[in-house]
Amino acid sequence: MGLIASLFGFLYELFFGCRHGRLTRPFTLERRTYKVCLDCGRQIYYSSERMTPLSAREIRGMKAAQAGPLTVVPAEATAGLLAGRAGKSNAAA
Length: 93
Ligand SMILES: [Zn+2]
Fold this sequence. Notes:
By secondary structure, the chain is of the alpha+beta class. The protein contains three helices and four strands, in the order αββββαα. The protein has a domain at 20-65. A hairpin with a 4-residue loop joins β3 and β4. Bound molecules: zinc ion. Residues 18, 20, 37, 39-40, 42 line the site of zinc ion (ZN).
């Protein structure tokens, strides 16, 4: 789900060209500090210590730390989901 959301964000930025020029002040919610883009609503994570945006690596580390114990999704469940989706799109076409 996170991958799809980030892919969607990337495509959104590609097509609509949002450069996050209009941002809120950084604020902290649920132990995360971030600014929000007033144009597209994207959250830009921020370091409350340095007052600079977090690097992609720092964001990954933060999310991993907050995700808690590692959850393993069986490969078959993902494959079945993809197969079902493909079948649906074929029927529609
Ligand atoms: Zn934006």
